[in-house]
Amino acid sequence: MSESMEGMKRTGRCTGFTSSDIGSKATVMGWINKRRNLGGVIFIDVRDVSGIMQVVFKSELNIDLFNKAETLRNEYVIAVRGEIIKRDKETINPNLKTGYIEIVAEELKILSKAETPPIDMGENSKTNELLRLKYRYLDLRRQSVQKNFILRHKAVKVARDFFDENGFMDIETPFMTKSTPEGARDYLVPSRVNKGSFYALPQSPQIFKQLLMVSGFDRYMQIVRCFRDEDLRADRQPEFTQIDIEMSFADESDIIGINEKFVKRLMKDVMNVDINLPLRTMTYQEAMDRFGSDKPEVRFGMELVDLSGLLKESGFKVFSGAVKNGGSVRAVNAKGCGGKFSRREIDALVEYVKIYGAKGMAWIAVEENEIKSAIKKFLSEEEVEAILKAVSAEPGDLICFIADKNKVVYDSLGALRLELARKLELLKNRDDFSFLWVTHFPLLEYDEEEKRWTSTHHPFTSPLDEDLEKLESDPGSIRAKAYDLILNGVELGGGSIRIHRREIQKKLFNLLGFNDKEAHERFGFLLEAFEYGVPPHGGIAYGLDRLIMLLAGEKSIREVIAFPKIQNASCPMTNAPSPVDLKQLKELAIKLDEDEL
Question: What does the pLDDT read at residue 597?
């Protein structure tokens, strides 16, 4: 039978006691992590959020207490009072914070009994993720999981403290707002009072934080929940958290400067890692040309090499044809892989790049006195020699080529170099943090299906001043005052300087296919606000979940979100989303189409 806490008061968390407390009395409370019965002595590891304290029950000291301890099982919740003593030499555990001390029990209360857990509660649990998430409240008890949330708490505190010290105000923005279809699908909330109308959950506070700049708040920050109805993957969730900031009277250098100081403070205070400022910067085009990605992983080489100039007149039509059709031929040199990879492994790489749109992959394996390749017969000796020189080839290297439209070439080789790095274990060091800025993104992308220009970021992103004259003549070449912060090949945050001049905003809306009426239907309240004096402004938003995932060395943001969703946006623990009572639907004037369910 469970007992009350009455008469016992916790004097500290399990790891709050040290060798300096030897001889004093202590009361700890928590879950039983492990029990060992050695006959006349029972050892119990009591666990709370801070860690573990070993408690000893001795039959020679109190047989009734010892007999009660024999009834204890893992995950029981207990309160124990006793004297802190130094452990015997043979029981010292230097791997534990409390490994040199223990409590000799004098009083025990069983606060709550527990059934055998349906999942493995060990720190190296092999329980599959779906079962772990079904019993997430148990999974969260494990110290290896809790450490992620301790780290997350520290990061959030640093963010709040830093931005407060630098003049930013924490201001909340609405969760229920107007749907402004641009980007991912909105989550919609039906209105009971205004039947037939819907609120949208915000994909970001973008419009509201710009309105706060119009309102004169100067510097805003918020740690805010955002919602997007999109297909999920390891680093996506339908609801996620951003560190969101906006600044008035600021240009790109101001925003980059304050955020570099934030990142330096975050890494020092949370990870005890010093990073040097200023951070490395490269343009979007340089990132694509060198790494095939706008979020480049720069901790290893294997950079893309453009061979288009060498091969534009090649007799090998796969190469020359790609260049003549406006594409390119590029390669990566997988140093030393020619002798490591079997033909089967190389064929697997060929299949891998097809995921990214490539029709295939040509390759050359460089050996000491010859080269091996199926394309060797299509190339002249001069072309082969020029290729080997261009990629700095040496015996043992494997050169991989993609020839296609630039997007396919970038996507395929960008992914291939990461796959090669995984296979060669080039990124094993979890304590290696490489930050950089990517700037000057394209302002617009052309949607082939809709036959119109769309915003690369959002329609309020400002073009570079020197590119304004191209708004009508060459929209595809316009660069944006946009910037992303990258950590180890993952986008941590992105932002831009916003358009504050009405004539430029109107031109951009027209270019995106919105007439004045359509623009006001979508963004009317923002455009009206812009009639009353707008400061130049810009900002950035960090993906907090991604940031913590990288700092914690995890592979999925689900490991750093307390109650995450799975691939189909459902919660295994609560079974959300779920059907609702017909009465609720009737109140909302919603009728389900049985044929579409």
Answer: 53
**Which CA distances in Å does 549 have to 296, 461, 552?**
18, 28, 5
CA–CA gap between residue 182 and residue 455 (Å, rounded) = 9
Give CA–CA dist 461/500, Å, rounded. 9
pLDDT in tens, 174-208: 999 988 765 678 999 999 999 999 999 999 999 99
* Residue 397 confidence (pLDDT): 94
The DSSP-derived string for 206-252 is: HHHHHHHHHTT--EEEEEEEEE-B----TT--SEEEEEEEEEES--H
State whether residue 104 is helix, strand or coil.
Answer: strand
| Contact partners, residue 273, CB within 8 Å, separation at least 6 | 267, 431, 433
CB 513 within 8 A of CB 452: yes
Integer-rounded Cα radius of gyration of the chain: 30
Residue spans of the chain under pLDDT 50? none
Other Cβ atoms within 10 Å of 3 Cβ, number: 14
**Length of the chain, please?**
597
Q: Which two structure tokens, joined as six digits, stand for 487?
A: 């950590």
CB 416 within 8 A of CB 300: no
Read off the pLDDT of residues 505-521 as tens digits, 9 standing for 90 and up.
Answer: 888 888 888 888 888 88
Domains within the chain, CATH numbers bracketed: 14-112 (2.40.50.140), 146-273+451-582 (3.30.930.10), 300-423 (3.30.1360.30)
What is the rounded distance in angstroms from the CA atom of residue 374 to the CA atom of residue 365? 10
Residue given tokens 């995921």 in the structure block = 355
CA distance 544 to 485: 13
For 497-523, give the DSSP string: EBP--HHHHHHHHHHTT--HHHHHHHH
Q: How many CA atoms lie within 13 A of 551 on its CB side?
A: 27
Angle, nearest 10°, between helix axes 406-423 and 343-354?
Answer: 140
In this structure, how many other beta carbons lie within 10 angstroms of the beta carbon of residue 528? 10
Pairwise CA distance, residues 33 & 47, whole Å: 6
**pLDDT tens digits, residue range 285-337?**
999 999 999 999 999 999 999 999 999 999 999 999 999 999 999 999 999 88
Q: Which amino acid is at 16?
A: G
Q: Do residues 399 and 391 touch, judged by C-beta distance below 8 A?
A: yes
At residue 272, the pLDDT reads: 96
Q: What are phi and psi of 540, to 5 degrees?
A: -155, 155
Share of the chain above pLDDT 70, in %: 98
Tokens of 44: 């119990």
Return the pLDDT at 181: 62
CA separation for the pair 87, 100 (Å, rounded): 6
Count CB atoms within 10 A of the CB of residue 275: 15
Tokens coding 74: 């893992």
pLDDT at 509: 87
pTM: 0.92
Peptide bond connecting 278 to the previous residue in cis, omega within 30 degrees of 0: yes
Rounded to whole angstroms, how far apart are CA atoms 53 and 33?
A: 10
| Residue 174: both structure tokens together | 């609405």
Nearest Cα residue to 377 out of 362, 359, 392: 362
Q: Which string of b and e fits 148-167 if b means at least 16 CB within 10 Å?
A: bbebbebbbebbeebbeeee
Contacts of 124 (CB under 8 A, 6+ apart): none
| Cβ neighbours for 534, distance < 8 A, ≥ 6 positions apart | 213, 214, 500
Q: State how far the Cα of 366 lies from the Cα of 363, in Å rounded to an integer.
A: 10
